[in-house]
Amino acid sequence: xxEFSYEAPTTVDQAVKLLSSDxxxxxxxxxxxxxxxQMRNAVRKPRLLVDVxxxxxxxxxxxxxxxxxxxxxxxPCIEIYESEVMHRHYPGLTEAxxxxxxxxxxxxxxxxxxxxxxxxxxxxxxxxxxxxxIAKIVGPKGTREVAVDKFFTGPGQSVLQPxxxxxxxxxxxxxxxxxxxxIRMIPRNEMDIAIVGAGASVTLDGDKVSAVRIGLGAVAxxxxxxxxxxxxxxxxxxxxxxxxxxxxxxxxxxxxxxxxRGTAEYRVHVIGVLTRRALLGAAERASKN
Length: 289
Known about the structure:
By secondary structure, the protein is α+β, with helices and mostly antiparallel strands. The strands form four sheets. The chain has a five-stranded antiparallel beta sheet. Strands 11-12-13-14 form a four-stranded antiparallel beta sheet. 32% of the residues lie in helices and 26% in strands. It starts with a strand and ends with a helix. It is globular, with a radius of gyration of 19 Å. The chain contains eleven helices and 14 strands. The protein folds into three domains: 5-51, 2-Layer Sandwich (Uridine Diphospho-n-acetylenolpyruvylglucosamine Reductase, domain 2); 56-171, Uridine Diphospho-n-acetylenolpyruvylglucosamine Reductase, domain 3; 178-286, CO dehydrogenase flavoprotein, C-terminal domain (Enolase-like, domain 1, 2-Layer Sandwich). A hairpin with a 3-residue loop joins β4 (61-64) and β5. It has helices at residues 12-21, 35-40, 77-81, 84-89, 91-97, 103-106, 111-117, 124-130, 227-233, 240-250, 264-286, and strands spanning 5-7, 26-29, 48-51, 61-64, 68-72, 134-139, 142-147, 152-154, 157-158, 165-171, 178-185, 196-205, 208-217, 224-225. The longest helix has 23 residues, at 264-286.
């Protein structure tokens, strides 16, 4: 591994100054579960690592019934899984965080890091899309907020500019009778990368769907929403037939590739299956809220 400098600021302002001082060669490190592997393989060669785990506001989970969730970008996934607030209000996002690697990896990895790594196959990205998450970004030019569905620009690429970092993930409070679900298909074991990941958030009005969002991962150059599938479900009772048709429509949002984990043809099939299961699972949870 190449030589690099390491800093561990305790405030966002300090972190931004450090990132800005080294331009494009500085990188934020939360847990390093992606970045250190990329550095070892010479995919990335930053000259400066800025460790943000000592910044208090990036390690907090706070929830307000009106404002929603403020999730620090550096909160380890294991703390998310252990949070009663997360299980109660965002169970799908919580289960996505719990699928990132082993327990040892989850003690370091964060949703913020998973988001900023911008992998098309990231587990938490479809779940974030489903709940309408927003990334709070701080940089030398100030603060801005970007919806997660606008955050990704390509494989491993995002809207982040030199000197910027994601400090918090903001998620609206779920409406009454709303819940979410995340499910994935993997080729071998629980620490593999998804062939397809599907996240869904469903709001019920009686026995009909009044709002829905569906996010997919590992099926396109970036995680994607499935507007046609979502529009089809609105106003309908979410039974097996409706969910199956939504799964068929979700396939239209995908442009998968062949790789070592699965063929494009197989991924297209799996999209329909997982979309159906995610929708039905979210609706079942919503019916109990």
